[in-house]
Design a protein that fits this description.
By secondary structure, the chain is α/β, with parallel strands linked by helices. Helix content is about 50%, strand content about 15%. The chain has one domain: 3-Layer(aba) Sandwich (Rossmann fold). Strand 1 (about 5), helix 1 (about 10-25) and strand 2 (about 25-30) form a beta-alpha-beta unit. The longest helix has 24 residues, at about 145-170.
Length: about 250
């Protein structure tokens, strides 16, 4: 049994992952903006630095894995906050803890989205991948909020693919899950939003398996990818979306 760190673990998918890992006998440290073992605002550079420092101090006995799940939806009015939490709040933690992860042969799980393959502004994604937060924020102001969201998830997944080899050489196995529509407090806020509600309900009706996801679906996939059962899986994006990605991108293998 080991110690895992889960960002965004106070609610939704992150909370379900936390509970799943705990049920397997692991110790879990939650990083979130409130109601967490480590309280930090991952939407700011200062908050990310504080989180990294606190994680280091709390895992001197070892770190089995890191799950970066914290995120916000496209309904958030502050487009800069969307990219700051969804991209920088994930990637900067992985980079900032790289030596700790390597020392422990840790597994890393990035929570992306099945919206990651959607069309977005390439310049925006390039700025994210270059870790240029000011430029990405500036570009995002002229984008649709959904594209800001999906672009942040696309950048997370592309970062993983680009860095898988270098991290694997250090003993760090990185994978991602791409949740489809999942009923959480975050998604409920989007579903109730007058600008997105009708479209979301229509979207749910097209899920091939006939139901929306629940956080436990994501937690089961996360548990597998973090475990030794997935020791030969590295750099993969697992869509956990009821078949939606296959239907939307049948030739996108």
């Amino acid at each position: 049994m080991g110690t895992y760190v889960v960002t965004g673990g106070a609610s939704g998918i992150g909370s379900a992952i936390k509970e799943q890992l705990q049920s397997e006998g692991h110790k879990v440290l939650v990083v979130d903006i409130q109601n967490a073992d480590i309280e930090a605002n991952l939407g700011t550079a200062e908050g990310r630095t504080e989180a990294i420092t606190a994680i280091r101090e709390a895992t001197t006995d070892g770190l089995a894995g890191l799950v970066v799940c914290a995120g916000v939806g496209s309904h958030v009015p502050d487009k800069g906050l969307i990219l700051s939490v969804n991209y920088f709040g994930k990637i900067e933690l992985v980079i900032g803890l790289q030596d700790v992860l390597a020392a422990n042969n840790s597994s890393v799980l990035l929570v992306s989205s099945n919206s990651a393959p959607m069309d977005t502004n390439p310049a925006y994604v390039d700025a994210l991948l270059a870790l240029d937060e000011p430029t990405a924020t500036e570009i995002a102001q002229d984008m649709d909020a959904q594209q800001v969201y999906s672009g942040s998830k696309q950048a997370v997944t592309r970062w993983m693919r680009a860095n898988t080899g270098a991290y694997a050489a250090q003993g760090i196995r990185i994978n991602a899950i791409g949740p489809g529509y999942t009923r959480t407090p975050l998604s409920a806020a989007v579903e109730d939003n007058p600008d997105y509600g009708d479209a979301i309900k229509q979207f749910i009706a097209t899920i091939p398996v006939g139901r929306p996801g629940v956080p436990e679906d994501m937690a089961n996939a996360a548990s597998f990818l973090l475990s030794d059962k997935a020791s030969f899986i590295c750099g993969s994006m697992l869509f956990v979306d009821g078949g939606h990605d296959a239907v939307m991108r049948p030739d996108g293998f």
